[in-house]
Structures are given as C-alpha cells and as structure tokens.
Here is the input.
Amino acid sequence: MAMGKLTKNDVEHVARLARLPLSDKEILKFQKQLSEVVTYVSELAAVDTSKTKPTSQSTGLTNVTRPDISKSKGLTQEEALSGTESLHNGYFVVPQILDKKDR
Amino acid sequence: MKIPKAPLTIADTQKGLLDKSFSAVELVDYYLQAIEEQNPSLNAFLTVSGDVAYEQAKKVQKLLEELESRAFEKYPLLGCGVAHKDLFLTKGIRSTAGSKVLENYVPSYSSTVVSRLEEAGAITIGKTNCDAWAHGASGENSDFGPTKNPWNKKFVPGGSSSGSAASIAAGLTLFATGTDTGGSIRQPASFCGVFGLKPTYGAVSRYGVIAMASSLDSMGHFARTTQDIKRIFEVTKGQDGMDSTVKNGPYQAPPEKLKIGIPKEYFVKGIARQVETAVRQAARVFEKQGIEIVEVSLPHTQYAISVYYIIQPAEVSSNLGRYDGIRYGVGREAFGAEAKRRIMLGTYVLSAGYYDAFYLKAMKVRSKIIEDFDAAWKNVDAVLAPVSPTSAFLLGEKASDPLQMYLADILTVAGNLAGIPGLSIPCGFDGNGLPLGFQLLGPRFSEDVLFGLGEMYEHASGYKPKVAEEKL
Here is the structure.
C-alpha cells in the first residue's frame, strides 16, 4: 500500500468527511503537513502485532451500568438554549438539510 | 491590610487564615492584584472570576468564624485559591477551551472536579490559557495568544495546560487544574518548575471537561509540593456516577522496600545533556535514601509517538464533531490551524481503506506498550525518567513545524497510552535559569507510591517551594 503521500483529492475528501471548510491555501498546506505525519507514523508497519489484541481503553471495565433512575435535574429549557442566539420560538435554528425536490 | 507575600502551600494558607495573619478576602485581593500586574505580560489567565472569588472568600471567613480549626476537617481545601484550565466547565464562568469556537460560551453546569473543589472550600480565581482544545506542547496554539514562561518570558511555559503551570510558577494562585492527554500536565509542570500530577486514567471523573481524546484524557493538577498534590487528589478522585470510566482504585499501598527503574529508552538521542544530568542526579538522591535503582527496558517506547498521533487525532476528530455552532459556540470555520490539522489527520486514519493500517494497528501497538510497562512492574515499583528531551524552548522555535512539535511529547505519551499515573517533580535549573524536572511513573492506581517518593525527594534534596520572581 502506498502510505504517506496524500494527494490534493485525499485532502479535499477528508475535509468533506470532517465538514471543515478549507481554503485552497490550507488544502496545500495540509497536503504537505499531513503527508509528513502520515509518513512518520507509518513506521508502525514494522512492529509484529500478528498475535496482539488491540487496546481501545485501559480501565479493564466493561458494561458499566447504573439503575435507570435519573439523579440529575437536567437543564431547564432556558439553560439548554443559553449557548446560542439563533433561536426561534424556544427552538434551536438549524441549517436546512432537505430541499423542496427531496419531498 | 495588604499581604506582602502569598502563602505557597495549603498548610501555610490555612495556618495564616486560622491565626488571622490574613483573611480569605485579603488573599483574593492579593491574587487579583498579582494577576492584574503580571497577566498582561504572561497571558496565563483568560478569565478572572473576581466576583465568584470574593463571594466564596466571604463564605470561607464565615465558616472559619463558626467552626475555627474544625472547618479544615470538613472543608479540606478551605481558602485555597484555584485556577482552572479553560477546558473545565465552570457554571456561570466563560469556558473557551482556548478556542475562538467557544469564545463566548458560558456553561450551565460545572465539571465534577470543579464542583468537588468548590465543595472542599477552594476559591475559584479564574480560568487559565491553554493550547486550543489542549492540542499542543507549548501554549502557542491558543487562539488567545501564547502564555509566557514566568522564569523567562522569551520561552514557552509548555503545554497544553500552559496558563495553569505558569500561574503557579508566577504565584497567581495556590493551585491549578489541568488535563493530561499526552503530557499536558507533566511537561508544563517541568518547564515551569512546579509539581504536576497526571492521575491513573479513570481515577478522576472527566464529566464536564471538554473532551480531547477520550481514551487518554486524565484530569490532574499543579501545585508546589507533593503534599499539596496529594491533598487535592484526595478531593478530586473517585466515582461520581457521571463518567463510566471512573474506578475507586484499589490503590496500591507503598511497599516496605522500594525499587525504581530507569528506562534506558527514555534517554533518547537529542536529549539535552543538562536534562540527562539532572535526572540521573535525582536517581542518586533516591539511591542515597536506600532505594535500589536498576535499569529497565521498555522496548516499544520508540513507537509511542506514532501510536499516539494516530489514536489521539482519531478521538479528537470524533470529539470535535459536535462543534457545529448550532447549540453553542460558532461554526467549524472558526477552528484554528492545529485543531483543523488534527481533525483532518484523525478523519484520515479512520476513513475507509486506512482504518486497519493506521487505527487498528495503533491500537495493537498500544497493547505492546502496555505489556512493556506490565513487565517492568514485575521488577520495579516505579520508573524515573525525563519529562521532555529539553528544558523550555523559545517561543516560535517549533511553531511552524507540526511534526517537530509532536515529537516534543516523545517522553510523556506512553504513560497516557498505558493509562498509568505520572508525577512531574522539579529538580533545579539549567544554565539559562530555566527549570528542569523529572517524572515518576507507576502502575495503575499507584499514586500513593509516587506521592511517597515525591515527599522523600523533596526532603532529601532540600526542596523549597518558590515563585519565579524570587530569582531576581
């Protein structure tokens, strides 16, 4: 596998996945910088992990549960809405995701 | 009355309050004035919470009048000034994570750590500057400008908990909170000449702390003595019912006879001679106290940085996905260059076709790093190592080269990948008058062992807490 070099298309694709609006200058900059980092971390290919299990976290805890009783009072509507000015009748205003033709 | 000099430890603070050398309100006066004088050049604080601090100080005085010395039994941190890294949510006090995305975000609840410290009687002085979203090793990634090192303002204070470490070194607060995902407490502690604890992963709740990389984030703190580090940890640790990764130990009791390992792989190429000398001297201090020092090997150390710079950005890209500017904050275009870089890197290593080669591979090599430490713990109770290959570097020195900046984490990230505790201890100064430090790492939940060693080192080396201005 050709690892390390990212093309301009790779960078644009990843930016789309991450919903990051990038300028052309940023795309060029990240193409170079990400290629450098990816080349560096590709050294892991040299480690024999054929018999190793992956670690996702280090606590050893699994299936942590609590009784299904809410102890928290939660946030009031006012508190929940306090972080934005983009409100309409007590609701968050969100960007439109459906066009008329999608109906 | 004006206090000429602030007390530097919890014990001195509480003694002064009890014998009325000063009041809690006068203590707040002192900190706020010191911040007003020093912060324009240090940029350690992003928000000063004077109103909250005075309100809390008045409560402290009332409790002292009512309960006298018994107040300290009920409120172990009564009257102690605390500054919180701006990743910790503080109800009613702006919390930015060092990012313009959250420039005007005022949380409607507090993190567990903040609530517990307040309930223990601590006084919230303000919120400290940090690399935006805790991404960085120098403080230069803050969207609000870099914090300066109080020992020499041409140098970085380390990062990402830059303002917290700097505020202790400059005497602007008694203690401060921080987060350590790849070294963000231990390294700035070392660069600023203070103590910093990265607890065992899962020892302290992450609830209400803006997430960086969830399998690595540890909530810790900075202070000027091991004793204080320990007393603060007694308050912050333990389950809160809000973070399912938190465990109440069991904590390992210090054994009769201790053995410390020196991991040979931590004395890497490029390590500054003065750093190596200082760390080896620290080992000799322990040896003179009757502790056996042996060389140990952690063979996968060399891969830690690569594992970290796959797993961490992967988790970052996921955690920062929630910032869409709808419920709070502003849109994704407001992310700074480093946050964008990590989101991009993380999204790339998780994307179709690359997941196995990068992310899955990194999770496997992470297991190898854990196995290395587990093997070492069969032979030694702790390891002693440098925190960073160099003392503080110049502002701007690494800012334009992300890979070089990432390599600054080379000696700290393995501890996060393994989820083990680390205590950063100051051990003198280099030729430029910049602090030097070393770290003690131990098995999971061996904090008490590390505290015992820290206290032993302080005693044996004649350590005295001080603030940066005293060098003049």
Notes: Chain A touches chain B through 52 residues (CB under 8 Å).
